[in-house]
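Complex record, four chains
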Amino acid sequence: LEVSALARTNGRADVEPLIAKLSSFAALSHNDVRTLNESVGSERRIAAHQSICIEGDAPRAAFVMARGLACRYRSLADGRRQILSYLLPGDLFNINGFLLKAMCYSVVAVTSVTIAPIERTAISRLLAGHPRLSAAIRWCAQQEEAILHERLIALGRQNARARVAFLFCEMVERQRAIGLSEDHSIRLPLTQLDLADTLGLTAVHVNRVLQEMRRENLIRLGGAPDAAQL
Amino acid sequence: LEVSALARTNGRADVEPLIAKLSSFAALSHNDVRTLNESVGSERRIAAHQSICIEGDAPRAAFVMARGLACRYRSLADGRRQILSYLLPGDLFNINGFLLKAMCYSVVAVTSVTIAPIERTAISRLLAGHPRLSAAIRWCAQQEEAILHERLIALGRQNARARVAFLFCEMVERQRAIGLSEDHSIRLPLTQLDLADTLGLTAVHVNRVLQEMRRENLIRLGGAPDAAQL
DNA sequence: CGATCCTTTGACTCAAGTCAAACCTAGTGG
DNA sequence: CCACTAGGTTTGACTTGAGTCAAAGGATCG
């Protein structure tokens, strides 16, 4: 919010990843694409570890992720937190946020992130007047729900090893889907504490599981040090 | 909304609970109510423990819960299962189901249940042509997402006691919201195994927690034996 | 009067948490 | 350049909440 000084251009933001994602549901018309482009405001840059919105705030706008990695989380009274989901380029969030009085979770940038706001009126126009876009967006929501379900199953019924494996697979699949990975290696700029807060574990235990997996050559951590972000 | 009293026609199903729920988001017009009534088909009765839909099936129709208690769940390869959410009267499900090729969870009736189908075409008509209804339905979806988030936090970061407490509170609140409970006592026709499958625990451990809570008079299990269902 | 689910109990195990210290960067600023 | 920090990662020793197994009691219902 404060960091937005660096906002890229005067013009509209990059909705390329979103278009790519929606297209994999149904081919969008030229008109659909134009509508999308006109719906988003000028993009905003947010530095890593900066809050994007905070639990309890009144919902201000919806956003499209253009670049980077962010996560939704809730923090508990005792200081622990639970990460609820990750936002990758192309993800929409808070589309229905205006219907509630307050955000019930926080969103923070994990890496440096660029987002493109979508105004309330643009959302209404889009959902009401563009059946195909509207369906595509509902399709995204269904997918997010499915991911939440998967995570619930992981936390409820899988041990630490399986949870870690599951999260890695999710991230690989999602990054492949939006063209951020060609093979099975991804950039995953999360700390072990982040993983722990996602998977309902402690950082110490995540560490042990990761070492085990490395020892078995199930995963390979490679610090490709090129700073290219997500 | 007394309007709906006259809606109990011969053919159509009882959408009273749904109307009540949507109304708590925004007052519905006479027209909205009529539309809802016309959107649902004739109601179907489903006996306890009968499947309503099965993971992998092609989505057939959306439903409104009219009476009873149902749950969505996924079963794992090793026979265990995870319950994802409960459906109470007034809850919609599978509204966006048509957008995926296959159901990714199963739904089963916990008690005897009556549901009212909504055809695909009715959904489209409703979402496209009735902004207020459409918003109300999106609002419901937001609430469901919030419940999923709560459950995720419970499974990820709370111990058994807190998970049980959380689930009971959720059910009390939800039943009060739709007028199924006046005080803080509810009908919760779940076995301890159901609770375990919801909370990521074992039935044995749920049993121990429940006993502890009873000993401390935090809860009181009362077999009010009148067979009145949800 | 079995048969079938649930619930309870007890003894034992184990996956994951806790605590605490050491180690490793990468970044900062003198 | 180098000490100084501050996150993040490892390690080891110990604890504990929840799972497992197995058997015994209720209910409920043809």
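Note: The longest strand of chain A covers residues 81-87.
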